[in-house]
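Usage

Read records sequentially. Each one opens with the input sequence:
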Amino acid sequence: MSTLCTQGQVQNILQTVFDNQPEPVISDLISRASAVVESYCNRTFEAETGLVETLDGNGHAILRLAKTPVTVITSIVEDGTTLTAADDFLFYPNGELVRGNGKSERLWTFYRQAVVITYDAGFSTLPEDLEHAVASIVARWFQVGAAYAAAPDNSGAVKSISLDGSDSIEYPDAVSDITADGKMGLTASDWLILNEWRRWVFV
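and closes with the structure output:
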Protein backbone atom coordinates (compact mmCIF):
# COMPACT_ATOMS: atom_id res chain seq x y z
CA MET A 1 0.00 0.00 0.00
CA SER A 2 1.26 3.48 -0.88
CA THR A 3 2.00 6.00 1.83
CA LEU A 4 1.60 9.47 0.38
CA CYS A 5 3.19 11.47 3.18
CA THR A 6 5.53 11.01 6.13
CA GLN A 7 5.08 11.35 9.87
CA GLY A 8 7.59 14.20 9.74
CA GLN A 9 5.36 16.16 7.37
CA VAL A 10 2.37 15.61 9.66
CA GLN A 11 4.42 16.73 12.67
CA ASN A 12 5.42 19.92 10.83
CA ILE A 13 1.77 20.81 10.29
CA LEU A 14 0.82 19.96 13.88
CA GLN A 15 3.95 21.73 15.19
CA THR A 16 4.75 18.82 17.48
CA VAL A 17 7.04 15.80 17.68
CA PHE A 18 5.61 12.47 18.81
CA ASP A 19 7.50 10.32 21.29
CA ASN A 20 7.12 7.24 19.11
CA GLN A 21 8.88 7.19 15.75
CA PRO A 22 6.81 5.91 14.09
CA GLU A 23 3.67 6.70 16.09
CA PRO A 24 1.17 3.87 15.40
CA VAL A 25 -1.89 6.15 15.34
CA ILE A 26 -0.27 8.50 12.80
CA SER A 27 0.94 5.57 10.69
CA ASP A 28 -2.60 4.19 10.64
CA LEU A 29 -4.07 7.56 9.67
CA ILE A 30 -1.48 8.01 6.92
CA SER A 31 -2.46 4.61 5.50
CA ARG A 32 -6.16 5.52 5.69
CA ALA A 33 -5.67 8.93 4.07
CA SER A 34 -3.43 7.50 1.34
CA ALA A 35 -6.05 4.87 0.50
CA VAL A 36 -8.82 7.49 0.41
CA VAL A 37 -6.79 9.77 -1.88
CA GLU A 38 -5.75 7.01 -4.28
CA SER A 39 -9.32 5.74 -4.45
CA TYR A 40 -10.65 9.22 -5.24
CA CYS A 41 -7.89 9.90 -7.78
CA ASN A 42 -8.44 6.53 -9.51
CA ARG A 43 -4.71 5.84 -9.53
CA THR A 44 -1.66 4.88 -7.53
CA PHE A 45 1.30 7.24 -7.35
CA GLU A 46 4.42 5.45 -6.17
CA ALA A 47 6.91 4.23 -8.78
CA GLU A 48 6.50 0.64 -9.98
CA THR A 49 8.62 -1.38 -12.38
CA GLY A 50 7.76 -4.27 -14.66
CA LEU A 51 4.08 -3.42 -15.00
CA VAL A 52 2.33 -5.52 -17.63
CA GLU A 53 -0.82 -4.22 -19.28
CA THR A 54 -2.82 -5.92 -22.03
CA LEU A 55 -4.96 -3.58 -24.11
CA ASP A 56 -7.59 -3.98 -26.76
CA GLY A 57 -6.57 -2.56 -30.11
CA ASN A 58 -8.76 0.35 -31.18
CA GLY A 59 -7.79 0.84 -34.82
CA HIS A 60 -6.61 4.36 -34.04
CA ALA A 61 -3.20 5.98 -33.71
CA ILE A 62 -3.18 6.30 -29.91
CA LEU A 63 -3.59 3.89 -26.99
CA ARG A 64 -3.38 4.94 -23.34
CA LEU A 65 -1.75 3.19 -20.40
CA ALA A 66 -3.42 3.15 -17.00
CA LYS A 67 -0.52 4.25 -14.80
CA THR A 68 1.33 7.53 -15.22
CA PRO A 69 3.79 9.11 -15.45
CA VAL A 70 5.28 6.51 -17.77
CA THR A 71 9.07 6.47 -17.45
CA VAL A 72 10.21 3.40 -19.41
CA ILE A 73 8.65 1.14 -22.04
CA THR A 74 10.40 -2.22 -21.81
CA SER A 75 8.50 -3.89 -24.62
CA ILE A 76 5.33 -3.74 -26.71
CA VAL A 77 4.04 -6.85 -28.44
CA GLU A 78 1.23 -6.30 -30.96
CA ASP A 79 -0.50 -9.34 -32.48
CA GLY A 80 2.48 -11.45 -31.45
CA THR A 81 5.08 -9.13 -33.01
CA THR A 82 7.56 -7.21 -30.85
CA LEU A 83 7.64 -3.54 -31.83
CA THR A 84 10.74 -1.35 -32.00
CA ALA A 85 10.82 1.90 -30.04
CA ALA A 86 11.07 5.11 -32.11
CA ASP A 87 10.39 3.20 -35.33
CA ASP A 88 7.12 1.46 -34.46
CA PHE A 89 5.87 3.52 -31.52
CA LEU A 90 6.42 6.61 -29.40
CA PHE A 91 5.41 7.03 -25.76
CA TYR A 92 4.72 10.02 -23.54
CA PRO A 93 4.73 10.44 -19.74
CA ASN A 94 0.93 11.01 -19.79
CA GLY A 95 0.48 7.39 -20.88
CA GLU A 96 -0.11 7.96 -24.58
CA LEU A 97 1.28 5.31 -26.93
CA VAL A 98 1.48 6.58 -30.50
CA ARG A 99 1.74 3.98 -33.25
CA GLY A 100 4.50 4.78 -35.73
CA ASN A 101 7.46 7.14 -35.56
CA GLY A 102 5.58 10.43 -35.68
CA LYS A 103 6.48 11.06 -39.31
CA SER A 104 3.95 8.74 -40.93
CA GLU A 105 0.51 7.72 -39.73
CA ARG A 106 0.18 4.18 -38.38
CA LEU A 107 -2.75 2.57 -36.59
CA TRP A 108 -2.96 0.06 -33.77
CA THR A 109 -4.54 -3.32 -34.44
CA PHE A 110 -8.31 -3.79 -34.23
CA TYR A 111 -8.02 -7.06 -32.30
CA ARG A 112 -8.99 -7.36 -28.64
CA GLN A 113 -6.36 -8.08 -25.97
CA ALA A 114 -3.74 -7.94 -28.72
CA VAL A 115 -1.32 -5.30 -27.39
CA VAL A 116 0.87 -6.30 -24.43
CA ILE A 117 2.98 -3.56 -22.86
CA THR A 118 5.65 -3.98 -20.20
CA TYR A 119 6.61 -0.68 -18.62
CA ASP A 120 7.67 1.36 -15.58
CA ALA A 121 5.58 4.19 -14.23
CA GLY A 122 4.86 6.31 -11.18
CA PHE A 123 6.64 8.98 -9.17
CA SER A 124 10.06 8.25 -7.70
CA THR A 125 9.54 11.48 -5.77
CA LEU A 126 5.93 12.29 -4.93
CA PRO A 127 4.57 15.72 -5.96
CA GLU A 128 4.98 18.20 -3.09
CA ASP A 129 1.43 19.53 -3.29
CA LEU A 130 0.02 16.00 -3.09
CA GLU A 131 2.19 15.12 -0.08
CA HIS A 132 1.17 18.33 1.67
CA ALA A 133 -2.53 17.70 0.99
CA VAL A 134 -2.34 14.18 2.45
CA ALA A 135 -0.31 15.34 5.47
CA SER A 136 -2.90 18.09 6.07
CA ILE A 137 -5.73 15.56 5.94
CA VAL A 138 -3.94 13.30 8.45
CA ALA A 139 -3.23 16.24 10.78
CA ARG A 140 -6.87 17.34 10.61
CA TRP A 141 -8.16 13.83 11.35
CA PHE A 142 -5.76 13.57 14.29
CA GLN A 143 -6.90 16.92 15.69
CA VAL A 144 -10.56 15.96 15.34
CA GLY A 145 -9.89 12.67 17.11
CA ALA A 146 -7.94 14.34 19.91
CA ALA A 147 -10.67 16.94 20.46
CA TYR A 148 -13.35 14.27 20.45
CA ALA A 149 -11.45 12.19 22.98
CA ALA A 150 -10.95 15.22 25.25
CA ALA A 151 -14.65 16.09 25.34
CA PRO A 152 -16.15 14.97 28.69
CA ASP A 153 -19.40 13.72 27.18
CA ASN A 154 -17.49 11.48 24.77
CA SER A 155 -15.19 9.82 27.27
CA GLY A 156 -14.82 6.17 26.49
CA ALA A 157 -16.11 6.53 22.92
CA VAL A 158 -13.03 5.12 21.24
CA LYS A 159 -12.15 2.64 18.54
CA SER A 160 -9.46 0.02 19.18
CA ILE A 161 -7.13 -1.16 16.45
CA SER A 162 -4.44 -3.82 16.69
CA LEU A 163 -1.43 -3.46 14.42
CA ASP A 164 1.23 -6.09 13.78
CA GLY A 165 4.32 -5.42 15.83
CA SER A 166 2.71 -2.89 18.19
CA ASP A 167 0.31 -2.65 21.07
CA SER A 168 -3.39 -2.10 20.56
CA ILE A 169 -4.05 1.58 19.86
CA GLU A 170 -7.20 3.53 20.46
CA TYR A 171 -8.65 6.70 19.06
CA PRO A 172 -12.15 8.18 18.75
CA ASP A 173 -14.92 6.90 16.55
CA ALA A 174 -15.03 10.42 15.14
CA VAL A 175 -12.03 9.61 12.94
CA SER A 176 -13.75 6.54 11.52
CA ASP A 177 -16.88 8.64 11.00
CA ILE A 178 -14.87 11.13 8.96
CA THR A 179 -13.26 8.52 6.72
CA ALA A 180 -16.65 6.95 6.07
CA ASP A 181 -18.25 10.33 5.31
CA GLY A 182 -18.87 11.12 1.67
CA LYS A 183 -16.83 14.31 2.06
CA MET A 184 -14.12 12.49 4.00
CA GLY A 185 -13.36 15.60 6.06
CA LEU A 186 -11.59 17.26 3.13
CA THR A 187 -11.44 21.04 2.60
CA ALA A 188 -11.98 22.97 -0.63
CA SER A 189 -8.21 23.36 -0.88
CA ASP A 190 -7.75 19.58 -0.58
CA TRP A 191 -10.26 18.95 -3.35
CA LEU A 192 -8.53 21.44 -5.68
CA ILE A 193 -5.21 19.64 -5.30
CA LEU A 194 -6.68 16.14 -5.59
CA ASN A 195 -8.64 17.09 -8.70
CA GLU A 196 -5.39 18.15 -10.34
CA TRP A 197 -4.05 14.63 -9.84
CA ARG A 198 -7.25 12.70 -10.43
CA ARG A 199 -7.42 10.26 -13.33
CA TRP A 200 -10.79 11.04 -14.86
CA VAL A 201 -12.57 8.03 -16.29
CA PHE A 202 -15.30 8.60 -18.87
CA VAL A 203 -17.67 5.79 -19.69
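Summary fields computed downstream for this record:
- The chain has two domains: 7-44+126-197, 48-121.
- The beta strands are 48-55, 62-64, 70-78, 81-82, 89-91, 96-99, 115-121, 158-161, 169-172.
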